[in-house]
From TrEMBL, chains A, B:
Native species: Sphingobium fontiphilum
Domain of life of the native organism: Bacteria
UniProt GO molecular function: cyclopropane-fatty-acyl-phospholipid synthase activity; metal ion binding
Statement: the UniProt record of this protein carries the keyword Magnesium: yes
EC number: 2.1.1.79
Pfam family, one: Methyltransf_7
Enzyme kind, highest EC tier: transferase
Database matches in SUPFAM superfamilies: S-adenosyl-L-methionine-dependent methyltransferases (SSF53335)
Gene3D superfamilies in the record: Methyltransferase, alpha-helical capping domain, Vaccinia Virus protein VP39
Name of the protein described by the UniProt record: Cyclopropane-fatty-acyl-phospholipid synthase
Residue ranges of coiled coil: none
Length: 357, 357
């Protein structure tokens, strides 16, 4: 376990690329959406409140996958709060996030939650959601999808894999678990301040399965594509060893821990479920039989979500586009040659604010 | 006066370039800053308010020039409202604006207004400030610097100059004046809803002088640099004729008009002054005698602020960087060969919300 300083956590690939290559993430959030809408339907609201109704979207990325949940929440809430109470929707992501794509979707896309909905005000907050980013007691409903498996940082170098959770070194895996725990506690502390008493926060992110972490097939295929690209001479062994993507799933026990041991107050863990993740790419492949297309969509999605983190380890003078093109081609070919169904896990967490933070 | 559809209004040049090349704009806002701080000092505030204190920054661009005014406003307000009332600062600009530079300045720059100041929450809103972008009655103090001379669109083609206000065609100049008026009214209507009764809005933008518009020397030099670059074969006459930057100053009479004729209600024009703009580049040149440096800073500033609007008229296949490099070189050489002091005008406007909108 080396102690080279790893690169900081990177945002999703910009220029709208993540928006165009995140169908898996869209399918993932589907399992949490009913709980978010139930929260919108049940949350006690007052039309005469002097404050806007506050919704927060933590880890919004470029916004495409926020349109359906936010539109549905608005449509659930509007009859309950009346036409005159403004709804403010705050989209939180890293400073380096592509907010222009988010606002362009909001402005131009037919799927924008602004289309046909009045008195709704989107905001962007380019700051880490592991700190307080919204005023105290300003959020009635919180939502986060496909985001909380991204850690605030890489806790250590991971020479033998792209993800520390898949390292053969137990010290690396322990460092990952410690970072996951610290980030989860920091996230909850911040939300305990921001949520209005009685407010609800619905979270969907990568979990761990009963027998294994999950995602092994794709994580190994992506990592092997980088190894192959290094073997082909397009990046050095030193660069390969520096690669470390700061993401990992959490087990149910890891999620429950800070509630059980009293490190989090003012929030109640209302619901927690681990479910097998959908695989929309596999479903499409079973219909089409097109293995080349299966390779293409997986490779583009992996590039959109993980390319920036992996490429952050490359030497400053390295042409990132060339390397990412080669890795993407290698991954697409690898999948096309041996199509499989992905096996990974989502956790769905519902948290209630008790206001005692 | 042709009726080709001109390009939409463009944001300032991205990648932080505008942040690094906007010293003139920083000097401009200095004349309005005392009025903004007076508003912060005099505005009646209640520490026990259930809502955050709301500040809006309309036309924030990449944020560099917002740090000093916002920091000073926070420092004026904090002793008055106490430590517990959150201050929300909403930065408004076009969807295409480079918000990553804004949040990076906020996160990393020693001049960030977040540095050493607690309970302050920045937000970004990537929507045109010619419409309502904030909840009703949510803004206590409004600020806009170097932004309102940018129109919502080019009302018509301007074949004979880069700016319609300098066209020889009276129909073009009339179309510009009509657009300036429509935009000003739209801006005021939106602010009349957003401002809390008693709130104050301090505006600094390009005005017009008593005898002439102002900025003629630099506007003509920039336009002539494009003409020269076209003569050198780097862009076509057709592209040159399509160029039109949607910006122009307003006279005092144009600013007063909608208040006088009753088109705006709920807002009161509390103060209006037209002042000659500072020229920090000229001051530096008088100290250094370095005409080449004078040409360089003017050329980079003009590229940062006007390059995107001008380049929007280029053919899709045209390499914009090559053309902008050539224009910037031509402008720098032109200024270095004939250094002058710029003569242009700022207007400073203070508006009070009466709450009757």
């Amino acid at each position: 376990m080396s102690h080279d300083a790893p690169a900081p956590t990177a945002a999703m690939q910009g220029g709208g690329f993540y928006n165009r290559n995140s169908a898996l993430q869209a399918a993932n959030l589907g399992s949490a959406l009913p709980l978010f809408l139930a929260a919108a339907a049940e949350y006690p609201v007052a039309a005469a409140s002097p404050t806007p109704f506050g919704i927060a979207d933590y880890g919004a990325s470029q916004g495409r996958n926020s349109m359906i949940p936010m539109a549905a929440a608005i449509d659930t809430l509007r009859p309950r709060i009346g036409p005159d109470r403004p709804i403010v929707i705050s989209h939180v992501d890293l400073p380096s996030n592509d907010f222009t794509s988010l606002f362009t979707v909001l402005d131009e896309d037919p799927a924008s939650y602004l289309a046909g909905r009045a008195n709704v005000y989107p905001m962007a907050i380019g700051r880490s959601h592991f700190s307080e980013v919204l005023p105290v007691h300003s959020i009635d409903l919180g939502w986060t999808s496909n985001a909380l498996h991204w850690m605030s940082r890489n806790p250590c170098a991971v020479p033998d894999h792209g993800w520390g959770v898949f390292s053969a070194d137990p010290a690396v895996r322990a460092a990952i678990d410690a970072q996951l725990d610290a980030d989860w506690v920091a996230f909850l502390h911040a939300r305990a301040r921001e949520m209005r008493p009685g407010g609800r926060l619905v979270c969907q992110f990568m979990g761990r399965g009963p027998d294994s972490h999950g995602f092994e097939w794709m994580a190994n295929a992506f990592w092997q594509s980088w190894v192959d690209t290094a073997d082909a001479g397009l990046l050095s062994q030193g660069e390969l060893e520096r690669i470390s993507a700061p993401s990992a799933g959490r087990s149910a026990a890891q999620i429950e821990a800070p509630f059980r041991d009293g490190r989090v107050t003012g929030l109640r863990l209302a619901d927690l479920a681990t479910v097998q993740a959908p695989d929309p790419y596999w479903d499409a492949y079973r219909n089409s039989g097109d293995a080349v297309q299966l390779g293409r969509v997986w490779a583009d999605m992996m590039r959109a979500a993980n390319g920036p983190s992996f490429a952050a380890a490359l030497d400053p003078g390295r042409d990132r586009g060339t390397v990412l093109d080669a890795v993407t081609e290698a991954l697409a070919a690898r999948i096309a040659a041996d199509p499989q169904q992905n096996r990974s896990f989502n956790v769905i967490v519902v948290i209630e604010a008790s206001g005692a933070a």
